[in-house]
Design a protein that fits this description.
The structure is a single chain. The chain is an all-beta fold. The protein has one domain. About 0% of the residues lie in helices and about 35% in strands. It has a three-stranded antiparallel β-sheet, with no helix packed on it. The chain has a three-stranded antiparallel β-sheet with strand order 4-5-6, with no helix packed on it. Strand 4 and strand 5 (about 70-75) form a beta hairpin. The termini are close together.
């Protein structure tokens, strides 16, 4: 997803099931994390946010019309109140996104 300033934001689902039986030595191999990855206009990737509340994935990121808020959904687990939507605010003009 494009950001108001021209960066890119990626919702990354954990790769735990994709790693079964593999022996990769890359930096991120085997990480069971659900996070938002930012990609700057210069192509540098960085972890913007990580779900530390649950093992659920973050999805559906979108910006408010005025670019002030970033909304992200966190999937639930068949239990009322286990998922939800969070609103993240800047100051965006000073960051990489």
């Amino acid at each position: 997803m494009g950001t108001p300033r021209g960066g890119i934001l990626i919702c990354e689902d954990d790769a735990s099931s994709a790693n079964v039986g593999q022996n990769d030595t890359s930096r991120y191999f085997g990480e069971d994390k659900n996070r938002l990855i930012g990609l700057t206009m210069r192509g540098a990737a960085f972890t913007f946010a990580e779900n530390i509340l649950s093992e659920s994935e973050m999805a559906g990121a979108c910006w408010s019309a005025d670019g002030e808020f970033l909304f992200v959904n966190i999937y639930g687990e068949d239990v009322a109140g286990s998922g939800g939507t969070v609103a993240i605010t800047g100051p965006w003009q000073r960051g990489a996104l």
